Amino acid sequence: MRRTKQDAQLTKESIMDASTHLFSQKGFHNTSLEDIARKAQVTRGAIYWHFKNKMEIFDSLHNALYEPFMNTILQGLENLTGHPLIQLHDLCINLLVDIANDKKRQTLMKLFITSNFTGALADHMAKHRQKKQASFEVLACYFKKAQQQGLLAADRDINCLTLALHCYLKGILVEFLQAPQYFDLEAQAKNLMDDLFKGLFQCYSQVKQD
Q1: Model's pTM, two decimal places?
Q2: 23, 36, 91, 144: least buried by Cβ within 10 Å?
Q3: Are residues 68 and 35 part of one domain?
Q4: What is 119-138 written as a DSSP string?
Q5: Interacting residues of 154 by C-beta distance below 8 A, sequence separation 6+
Q6: Last residue of some domain: 51, 71, 86?
Q7: Between 158-178 and 122-148, two packed helices, what is the crossing angle to 10 degrees?
């Protein structure tokens, strides 16, 4: 039984890998289940065993990218000790380094950046916005905790700070994915986040020196 479960998981991963490649190369709308089955070297029946349709495959790919990110920032909140902004700073560095070393996640990110969210994918865009909002709210919790502890000025706008961080991270990742030859994300992740946090959060530099 264990071997059967392992085989099933490997088949599912093959289907997802094949779908990622084909969606990236041909686009979601121009890729058929027959294309995916051929690329994954499985039958149509094997695909239907794991997924109802092509849309469900696409959603699973998005979850594979989104869930590890959410789990990381949620675990950070659950294990919060010391200065929330320092922990957020370190968490962002780790996220950038992890992506720099994970080719599969890079491919998935490129897919969702370049996908044409029309037709059947229009509904997925609504789900995507909901997930983005959820991640935005979780990131905001770090700033709220810092403010509650008197470590961030009470007049700082939490939404603006969270938006600034989100846009900065996304901008770095988009530039890296589009032209990775221009900078070493793993080597420069710390400096990139140091510059942001020192510039945006006035209390951060002083705390790091104490």
Answers
A1: 0.83
A2: 144
A3: no
A4: GGGHHHHHHHHHHHHHHHHH
A5: 147
A6: 51
A7: 130
